[in-house]
Amino acid sequence: MRNRRDTDPARAESHDPSIPGGQTRPLTLSLFNCLIECMDKGPDRQFKDQLFEQLARISKALASPRRLELIDLLAQGERTVEDLAELTGLSVANTSRHLQALRTALLVTARRQGPYAWYRLSNDGVFRVWQAVRDFGHGQFAEIDRLFRTYVTEREKFESVSADELLRRMRRDEVVVLDVRPAREYRAGHIAGARSLPLSELEKRLSGIPKRREVVAYCRGPFCVYADNAVATLRRRGFRARRLDVGFPDWQAAGLPVERAAERP
Hints:
This protein is of the alpha/beta class. The protein contains 11 helices and 12 strands. Helix 4 (81-88) packs across helix 5.
């Protein structure tokens, strides 16, 4: 049976080349701290500098409100430079420069189709990074809450529904789920079973929504107000309506059921 002392890191034996004759001495806490400090010098320092420089490429690329908005939009699906420029109010040239910065950091990729370049997030991890920044910022900065209270006044009036609750109620066929994003984003991916009803068409298509069941509307995410406006309109017209408390990309990132428009008849 191995002696317990052999598994105790505080008493482990360490070869110290600074001791003549290659003798060993116990790896005490002070010796351990000294070894760690030595890593900050010489070749190890160069390794750390290069490592953190590579990681900083991500934070540098994200250090722009416009690029964060582009990532939020690309989380809904592929977009051309021209589409993104129209959605963000930027010029095509400026949008292209921001996309190139994101591409250099390997956060987005592009494919050519005819005269157009279509951009998308390079992998699912990019959205998770943006999700973490978004959620951390919302909890960290009081200014974000003040902005919501000023510009998103309807949200505080109505109770929202969580993703887990919505999934349970969908399985029991108790709700009608509306995707109120633009139709293109719905086609790129949506909650399985949801209907596409862009906010711009809601007033004209209210007759097609059954009133006997509750309606849940969702859009791009917490910073999107399409669902808030849809819920307000539906309630004014006598519907029982609530907003999903996350957007489609959050639903998808959680591994919940999704589908593409082509998958439905």
